[in-house]
Amino acid sequence: MRLAFLGPVGTYGEQAALQLVQLEHLQDVELVPQRGIRAVVQALASGACEAAVVPVENSVEGGVTTSLDALWEHPELAITRALVLPIRHALLGSGDLEGVSEVLSHPQALAQCSQWLATHLPGALQLPTSSTAEAARMVVGSRFRAAVASRPAAQEHGLQELAYPINDAAGNCTRFLLLRRGPRHQGGPLASLAFSLHSNQPGALLQALTCFAQRGLNMSRIESRPSKREMGEYIFFVDLELAPDAGADAGARADGEGEAPCTDGLDAALAELAPLCEHLALFGTYPLTTLA
Fold first, then answer.
1. Quick check: 256 pLDDT over 50?
2. Could you tell me the CATH superfamily of domain 90-163?
3. CB atoms within 10 A of CB 124
4. CA distance 130 to 238
5. Which pLDDT does position 257 carry in this prediction?
6. Based on the number of CB atoms within 10 Å of its own CB, is 292 exposed (0-12), middle (13-18) or buried (19 or more)?
7. For domain 2-86+172-181, which CATH number applies: 3.30.450.20, 2.60.40.1180, 3.40.50.360, 3.40.190.10?
8. For residues 289 and 282, what is the distance between their CA atoms, to the nearest angstrom?
9. pLDDT tens, 174-218?
């Protein structure tokens, strides 16, 4: 199996991919690094890879819009598992902290360390890169450049650890998704979906969300993205927590880690929601693992 992730080697995406391979008990997996999240998704959609790992949400900076758009644009892809990975950024370089005048990293990583950088390197120019590991590669040998990246990236590129941890929020974490091609099946306690409404009228969104509330489905996330067709038209991304099915036996458990979820409420909610929507997509129901 070929599994695409946001490369190069040493990114948090690679760490997430390795963890997800273990959780899914996948065998003979070749990790295939890609430059950019869109390239990761395209590698899966085109058939060049059989699976892909993408970040979808950060606890500090919110949704990763490129991943959300990709799910909406590729109905042939499905979410099969999610992983919440703790993010601990380090400042890496080949010189001294006092000599750093440029800091490179992925825009999300720079944003997650903005307060630390403003306090300790207020005059440093911040330069965006395609990934944290790419930033680490680009600062090798420089006395005035530093990268915001992971500790494994320091080992991979032979860099010094100038400061750690430097992320502003101690609880910083990112949720990653394991994507596969095929039907968006139901197999876990978390459901992800997106919809666009027929018209932008007062109460239209409330009516749509009532479909979930009436059936006791808790929304753990809701986010809007522009449809890119016209001003004021939006796509709403929603995560729902499904109640466990107390009547299911161990053989019917969806993820092997607990009680199987009951999807009756979700099925009924989607049936009621569909007539209100111009487009409605269920990305799948899947297990979620949170690492400490």
1. no
2. Periplasmic binding protein-like II (3.40.190.10)
3. 16
4. 27
5. 55
6. exposed
7. 3.40.190.10
8. 20
9. 999 999 998 777 678 999 999 999 877 788 899 999 999 999 999
Decide if 85 contacts 291 (C-beta within 8 A): yes
Distance CA 51, CA 121 (A): 39
End-to-end CA distance of the chain: 28
Q: Residue 202 corresponds to which tokens in the numbers above? A: 């007062």
Higher pLDDT, 61 or 191: 191
pTM: predicted TM-score of the whole model, two decimal places: 0.84
Provide Rg for the chain, Cα atoms: 21
- What does DSSP assign to residue 252? G
Rounded CA gap, 69 and 237, in Å?
10
Cα(73)–Cα(209) distance, integer angstroms = 23
Interval 6-30: pLDDT, tens: 988 888 999 999 999 999 999 999 9
The Cα–Cα gap between 188 and 271 comes to 20
Contact 131, 106 (CB under 8 A): yes
Cα–Cα distance, 49 to 42 (Å, whole number): 9
Query: 250 in helix, strand or coil?
Result: helix
* CB 219, CB 238: distance < 8 Å: yes
